[in-house]
Design goal:
single chain; about 120 residues; mainly alpha; about 80% helix
């Protein structure tokens, strides 16, 4: 009886530690990416962004998403891919005003997406 209680409490503690670790990791990854998108947004706003700026952010996202596939569904990652590709294409064509709209959406996604997978009461029930 005592063994099973200890094992159960140990399993619960390990699960909580794993959930907290994943929450911190995802928050850090999306925070770094959000900062990169924000920098790109400012460059587009100033009309100083070029193809390499968009490529750098896309490259960063490619590295991050290879690890995030473990924790985030593929549809959500594809959603970020879609908006980032749209924005980069518009930057390449010099359509800065249209790119700002796409980057605005991308900023909101990167701000809100990790919260959807956090260990919160509304996500559990």
């Amino acid at each position: 009886m005592v063994k099973s209680v200890v094992y159960t409490l140990t399993a619960i503690a390990l699960c909580l530690a794993l959930f907290i670790g994943v929450h911190i990791y995802m928050g850090k990854q999306f925070s770094e990416f959000h900062d990169a998108v924000e920098t790109l947004y400012k460059k587009v706003e100033d009309k100083t962004a070029n193809r390499e700026d968009g490529f750098a952010v896309r490259s960063m996202w490619t590295q991050k998403k290879s690890h995030l596939h473990i924790f985030v569904p593929h549809n959500d990652i594809s959603y970020v891919d879609y908006w980032l590709s749209e924005a980069c294409g518009l930057i390449y064509c010099g359509e800065f005003e249209l790119a700002l709209g796409k980057l605005e959406v991308l900023l909101e996604i990167t701000k809100n997406l990790p919260g959807g997978y956090a260990l919160k009461l509304e996500n559990v029930f």
